[in-house]
Automatic annotation (TrEMBL):
NCBIfam families for this protein: hisC
Cofactor field: pyridoxal 5'-phosphate
Pathway: Amino-acid biosynthesis; L-histidine biosynthesis; L-histidine from 5-phospho-alpha-D-ribose 1-diphosphate: step 7/9
One family name in Pfam for this protein: Aminotran_1_2
Keyword tags: Amino-acid biosynthesis, Aminotransferase, Histidine biosynthesis, Pyridoxal phosphate, Transferase
Residue ranges annotated for the Aminotransferase class I/classII large domain, each copy included: 26-351
Organism lineage string: Bacteria, Pseudomonadati, Pseudomonadota, Betaproteobacteria, Burkholderiales
Name this protein carries in UniProt: Histidinol-phosphate aminotransferase
Assembly notes: Homodimer.
Biological source species: Mycoavidus cysteinexigens
UniProt-recorded Gene Ontology molecular function terms: histidinol-phosphate transaminase activity; pyridoxal phosphate binding
Length: 358
């Protein structure tokens, strides 16, 4: 009798699937989504556009109008190329597959975005996690030593970092890019709309750096579009492992249309940044909580008991992310996505009772 166990790789058999909690009827503050839907007139106009697409045809493998617009709107330096992915998750997979020589390694500070490790392991690259310091800053000495010792093919630096929320120090990052002279360094700017700092304009200063971004945190998580920016010599290689029709016609057209309305998303990001500051101030007044500085659309907080606080919030129909078991540095930490002013009020009220009861 043939069983999946006979054919599927042991490491896949040992995995658990990426769990997404059913958020039906909940205030969803677990996944860094933008809480604002598209305004009705814009949604209507988008619908009109999408209704005219030839869904019977394969998408353009290199949608040049979209890519040109993206370059213009996102300050892509001249001479740099753009590679599109079905979310940055797919780009992370492509990078791993492209670099998976025997013995190749992926190195990142930890804790950081879980997909770096997960995709590395699936592509059979060794994963090296270098712990951040207690205050979540980069341990440049440990990073430099690890870079020298492991000579990783790929280095990921999330800027700002998820789940800790902080922006790494510019000097520290430059030092690490220098120490990683034999590696491809990917600066992941998924939270760029909330960070107001970027390495995009500095890309051409470095031979070994790529910048990765996504439409997801900006407000379009549903369309699944990420992009990688950098020197054509790198992107041409990575493009070879890209499934030819990885971004679909609906996504391409929606992105091209919505890039003409970037000011709307910029305004939403500004509102969320203001809400982040307000929420951080109010949370810091609760003596049981430690609130960490964040340049993303989320706040990391340390609680007296993360599971109990999480459960109390859920009982009040608010879903957040419990990171307590992700890494020792995150013991009793919760990650709270910044929502609408109303949602944030609900969160604050619920947290106050949760902290009393927990
Ligand atoms: C959310 C996130 C991404 C995301 O990805 P998409 O696949 O584009 O939705 C990438 N990097 C980091 C650090 C993130 O937090």
């Amino acid at each position: 009798m043939l069983n999946p166990e006979n054919l599927i790789r042991p490491e896949v058999l040992a995995m658990t699937r990426y769990a997404v909690t059913d958020a039906d009827g909940l205030i969803k503050l677990d996944a860094m989504e933008n809480p604002f839907p598209l305004p009705e007139p814009l949604a209507h106009e988008l619908g009109q556009r999408l209704s005219q697409l030839a869904l019977n045809r394969y998408p353009a493998p290199h949608p040049s109008a979209l890519i040109e617009k993206l370059k213009r709107m996102m300050d892509v330096p001249s001479g740099c190329d753009v590679l599109l992915g079905n979310g940055s998750d797919e780009i992370i997979s492509m990078l791993a597959v492209a670099c998976a020589r025997p013995g190749a390694k992926v190195l990142t500070p930890v804790p950081s975005f879980v997909m770096y490790e997960q995709t590395a392991r699936l592509a059979q690259l060794e994963f090296i996690g270098v712990p951040l310091k207690d205050d979540f800053t980069l341990d440049t000495q440990a990073m430099s030593l690890a870079l020298e010792r492991h000579q990783p093919a790929l280095v990921y630096l999330a800027y700002p970092n998820n789940p800790t929320g902080n922006l790494f120090d510019t000097d520290a990052l430059e030092q690490i890019i220098g120490a990683a002279h034999a590696s491809l360094v990917v600066i992941d700017e998924a939270y760029q709309p909330f960070a107001e700092h970027s390495w995009m304009k500095r890309l051409t200063e470095f031979k070994n750096v790529l910048v990765m971004r996504t439409f997801s945190k900006l407000g379009l998580a549903g369309i699944r579009l990420g992009y990688l920016v950098g020197a054509p010599a790198w992107l041409a290689q990575i493009d070879k492992v890209r499934p030819p029709y990885n971004t679909n016609v609906l996504t391409q057209a929606a992105a091209e249309f919505l890039l003409d309305h970037l000011t709307l998303f910029d305004k939403q990001a500004a509102l969320l940044r203001a809400e982040r500051a307000r929420l951080a101030t109010l949370l810091a007044q609760l003596p049981e909580l430690t609130v960490y500085p964040s340049a993303g659309n989320f706040l990391l907080v340390r609680t007296p008991d993360a599971q109990r606080v999480f459960d109390h919030l859920l009982a009040q129909r608010i879903l957040v992310k419990n990171l307590s078991k992700m890494h020792p540095l995150l013991l009793h930490c919760l990650r709270l996505t910044v929502g609408t002013p109303f949602e944030n009020e609900q969160l604050l009220a619920a947290l106050k009772t949760a902290l009393v009861e927990a």
